[in-house]
Amino acid sequence: MSFSKGNGTEELLEWYRDNARDLPWRRPGVTGWQILMSEVMLQQTPVSRVAPIWEQWVARWPVPSAMAGSSQGEVLRAWGKLGYPRRALRLHECARVLAADFDDVVPSDVDALLTLPGVGAYTARAVACFCYGARVPVVDTNVRRVVARAVHGLVDAGNPSTTRDLADVEALLPTDTARAATMSAALMELGAVICTARSADCARCPLPDCAWVDAGKPPSTAAPKKVQKFAGTDRQVRGKLLDVLRAGSGAVEKARLDIVWPQDPAQRDRALDSLLVDGLIEQTDDGLFALAGEGAQPSPPRNSSTATR
């Protein structure tokens, strides 16, 4: 047998009630804006790295208008080492739209959420479900893996298919709206802590039936995925360049940036150019570099002799 709406639902919901991690964005009183921030931060970034930064952001920017009143540079600086910093700019843009057009409140409707800058199909459904309790399928990598194994008997989910993936999860949701919202969270939790990509802990799985286990846990037939390296990549260089600008409060000379990656000037300049193209940094009229929105701020003296003139 395989996992289905009528087979395993109660067991999974009970397991989630008893074992769900105490994540800060799951606690009572968390708003749609705060859940939206968490969902954006959690894209491609582990929970352990997101949680402390998210709590800082909630304290500093509890409502969209608070963030909208800050500069892009301030938001980028607060983003720290979460990676993929364009997400921070999208949140800043989203905050401005929410403050101006939505009375500082994140909408509950998926279609309205999709009109917000940087909000895609997954994030819109996640906010609607986890904040407002909507009965909508929420599909991430963890959920796709659980469905692939427990329903289809496959160790890997294969390439994403929005239509198929949403239909698969929709078929598992209870009719009752509140239970359906909990089910969406439970599926995600199961994939995150039990039915993981590297090691499925089947002995602790609450599901009474799993098509993959029943089939003898057949291995994947797909070619092994290449491990994405970080050292030496343009991403690493971009991060080092941003670190220099985040550490200061104004524009800096290019020489300050050059010293962080002297071994490959061409790569360094390519990374710097990509940061400009992405709108993460800006260049002043006199050739200095600063975080987005901070190019017009006064820069510190270039050297002591200049400062005393």
Q: Summed up, what is this model?
A:
With 309 residues, this protein is mainly α.
Walk me through what this model shows:
With 309 residues, this protein is mainly alpha-helical. It has two domains: 9-214, Orthogonal Bundle (Endonuclease III, domain 1), CATH 1.10.340.30; 234-291, Arc Repressor Mutant, subunit A (Orthogonal Bundle). It is built from 16 helices and two strands. It has helices at 9-19, 32-41, 47-60, 64-68, 72-79, 86-101, 110-113, 121-130, 141-150, 162-170, 177-193, 211-214, 234-247, 254-258, 265-277, 304-307, and strands at 281-283, 289-291. The longest helix has 17 residues, at 177-193. The chain is globular and about 70 Å long. 33% of the residues are buried. This is Adenine DNA glycosylase. It catalyses: Hydrolyzes free adenine bases from 7,8-dihydro-8-oxoguanine:adenine mismatched double-stranded DNA, leaving an apurinic site. It holds the Pfam family HHH. Its cofactor is [4Fe-4S] cluster.
